[in-house]
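Data card: per-record layout.
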Amino acid sequence: MSNKFAIDSVKEYITIVVGLALYALGWTGFLLPHEITTGGVTGIGALLYYAKDIPVAVTYLSINLVLLFLSVRIIGWKFSLRTIFGVATLTVFLSVAQKLITKPILVDEPFMACVLGGVFAGVGIGVVFTANGSTGGTDIIAMIVNKYRNVTLGRVILYSDLMIIASSYLIFHSLEKVVFGVTTLVVMTYCLDLVVNGVRQSVQFFIITHNPDEIAQRINTEVHRGVTVMDATGYYSKEPTKVLMVMAKKNESVKVFRIVKQVDPNAFVSQSSVIGVYGQGFDILKYK
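The structure for this 288-residue chain is written out next.
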């Protein structure tokens, strides 16, 4: 068990690194060269730097220390340690990327830059979230709200960052930059929810088979999902049969179909998407 836990932890940290690399690429390769303002603590630091000449690092560190304290109290040490790792790793990636990318990837194409930059940044943050990681800042706020309320991570970040981007007008006095910032934010939010909800999306199986025991056992041991066995009767044949009900993640569907096909190729299988599944092995039940 300890070896499996260590392997899973390593995989998650590697996933966080990949996500942060995508985020750094979107920021330095597309957004930064075109002076497109995004949200988050970095956005606040940039605004204060332009307005009061306060170093971005000072603002970034100060705000994250407060949010990190809250995350320790509310979310727990596991998330907080990964937040520290995420902040440190992203700092290195941004520094290295800025040195390597000396010229804009897209020249005189600010709209395409904000779209592609939003895609890379949104997917990157989504990948980080799927590994229970964080880049700090508004990510922490989103995780805290999402812990107690059925509000998507992307929506919380959207509300927070929208205020930051709108404030950039006081610095740049340019509606065009605000529009590009909002466009980037919308793309990031959509990509973030697409990645996170795509991983969390659940499906429901109804399996009618003459070999229920073998299929149920293999689903238990290979997919690590519970199986509910129900008695049924075929209306046409009038013969009793067994129906297996299985709740699984969408990315586990292939394993379930493979098992059914190997055991009983003639089985009748119904698969449907469900809005939400709450309980052990799935999402935590939340209420207002």
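Known properties of this structure: The first strand starts at residue 202 and ends at 209. Residues 202-274 form a domain with the Alpha-Beta Plaits fold (CATH 3.30.70.120).

See the next section for split statistics.
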